[in-house]
């Protein structure tokens, strides 16, 4: 981690206010993390009801990390539900974390851009969409940058900062500075399928599932990789990521190869991993 602290060019950029759009798995936890780290955060989703679960998770995170009730209270006060998106106009960093859908993201960016503060960082948390496709609706396309957090946000130090072809280098530099400001490790990457981490991880997870297709027990695959020194076995990792997400990512990153049979079988039974209580393993 020491070595990685050097990643990302230095920039004077410092954020005070962050606006996160999409209060789902990622957006909700990104907003909570930023509030934990002292920033004022507005969190937007379609309704207050959709923001509520994220606030509940944030409360748990604050209590665990801050302990003192006054500090917990202060962090909670910094996290402001904002269904109308009023926070956009004041934000130094705007992070989009809505559904993984180009049209939805286009519609959002169109309405967002005229309301942005000058010099604000505009970021997407997309895992799989090309920034070059997302930015086409922007009058100033060079300012869109990827700030790609990993799940679970509070546990994962690495954040990929994605610079698309021909983008303004100042945008990625400011994004790196922001990532450092919230005590994460920025990894500057080019805009390519899977960026860096998922491009490396996907073949590893697919090979593990192919071993299961060939008759090796999931436990055996995981025990082997744990004994090899990995912190979590690859099959448990698939259960953690979600089998539907792994299937989609596999389609994109496996170069057209068929999905492993064991993965298809689970997804067809709606066994999606930890989130559904059953995947390769029983989590209920
Ligand atoms: P999610 O489905 O949990 O949450 C998406 C949220 O966006 C929902 O609450 C939805 O109501 C809201 N939303 C949709 N359209 C909206 C709009 N126009 N305005 C406001 N809110 C809107 O999704 P997620 O898993 O958090 O993924 C969000 C983004 O993060 C995606 O781009 C995904 O690729 C990326 N990502 C996901 C993971 C992961 O492990 N889930 C990891 C890294 C990146």
UniProtKB/TrEMBL annotation:
Residues 18-190 form the 3-hydroxyacyl-CoA dehydrogenase NAD binding domain. It comes from the Bacteria. Residues 194-283 form the 3-hydroxyacyl-CoA dehydrogenase C-terminal domain. In the central section; belongs to the 3-hydroxyacyl-CoA dehydrogenase family. This is 3-hydroxyacyl-CoA dehydrogenase NAD-binding domain-containing protein. The lineage of its organism: Bacteria, Pseudomonadati, Pseudomonadota, Betaproteobacteria, Rhodocyclales. The chain holds residues 286 to 569 of 638 of the full protein.
């Amino acid at each position: 981690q020491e070595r990685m602290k050097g990643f990302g060019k230095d920039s004077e950029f410092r954020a005070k206010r962050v606006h996160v759009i999409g209060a789902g798995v990622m957006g909700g936890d990104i907003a909570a993390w930023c509030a934990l780290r002292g920033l004022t955060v507005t969190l937007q989703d379609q309704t207050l009801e959709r923001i509520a679960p994220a606030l509940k998770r944030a409360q748990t995170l604050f209590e665990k990390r801050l302990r003192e009730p006054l500090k917990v209270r202060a962090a909670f006060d910094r996290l402001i539900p904002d269904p109308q998106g009023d926070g956009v106009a004041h934000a130094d960093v705007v992070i989009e974390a809505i559904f993984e859908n180009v049209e939805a993201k286009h519609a959002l960016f169109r309405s967002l851009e005229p309301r942005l503060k000058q010099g604000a960082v505009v970021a997407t948390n997309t895992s799989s969409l090309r920034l070059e496709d997302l930015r086409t609706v922007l009058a100033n396309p060079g300012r869109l940058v990827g700030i790609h957090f990993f799940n679970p946000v509070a546990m994962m130090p690495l954040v990929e900062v994605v610079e698309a072809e021909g983008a303004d280098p100042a945008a990625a530099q400011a994004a790196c500075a922001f990532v450092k400001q919230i005590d994460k490790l920025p990894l500057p990457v080019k805009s390519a399928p899977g960026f860096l981490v998922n491009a490396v991880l996907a073949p590893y997870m697919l090979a593990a599932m192919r071993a299961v297709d060939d008759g090796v027990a999931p436990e055996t695959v995981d025990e082997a990789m744990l004994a090899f020194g990995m912190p979590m076995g690859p099959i448990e990792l698939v259960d953690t990521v979600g089998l539907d997400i792994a299937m989609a990512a596999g389609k994109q990153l496996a170069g057209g190869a068929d999905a492993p049979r064991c993965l298809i079988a689970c997804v067809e039974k709606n066994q999606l991993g930890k989130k559904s209580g059953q995947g390769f393993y029983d989590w209920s």
